[in-house]
């Protein structure tokens, strides 16, 4: 799956609340943590989200939508 599609999947899965764990949204295990972190960082670089917290041992990459992220969610729905 392309990075753009993965970003859309994260945005759709986090939905209205606009806050959550990238790894949970993608149903990825710890083996894909670096890939999840890179995706969250790419989303932050596009100003779709703010990366709030990450922890490898907990398999958490917590993000929050920016206004652009919320707008993209609304377009996807």
Describe this structure in words.
The protein contains 4 helices and 3 strands; from the N terminus they run αβααββα. It is globular, with a radius of gyration of 11 Å. Strands 1-3-2 form a 3-stranded antiparallel β-sheet. It is an alpha+beta fold and 77 residues long. The mean pLDDT is 95. The chain has a single domain, classed as Arc Repressor Mutant, subunit A (Orthogonal Bundle), CATH 1.10.10.
- CATH class bucket: Mainly Alpha
**What is the overall pLDDT average?**
95
Class based on secondary structure composition and strand pairing:
alpha+beta
Percent of residues in beta strands: 15-25%
Write the layout of secondary structure elements.
Elements: H1 3-14, E1 19-21, H2 22-26, H3 33-45, E2 49-55, E3 60-65, H4 67-76
Antiparallel strand pairs: 1-3, 2-3
Summarize the structure.
This protein is of the alpha+beta class and 77 residues long.
Could you name the key traits of this structure?
globular; alpha+beta; 4 helices; Arc Repressor Mutant, subunit A; 77 residues; three-stranded antiparallel beta sheet
């Amino acid at each position: 799956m392309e990075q753009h599609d993965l970003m859309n999947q994260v945005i759709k899965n986090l939905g209205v609340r606009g806050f959550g764990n990238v790894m949970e949204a993608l149903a990825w295990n710890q083996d894909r943590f670096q890939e999840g972190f890179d995706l969250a960082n790419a989303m932050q670089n596009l100003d779709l989200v703010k990366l709030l917290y990450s922890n490898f041992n907990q398999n958490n990459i917590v993000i929050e939508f920016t206004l652009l992220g919320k707008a993209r969610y609304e377009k996807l729905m």
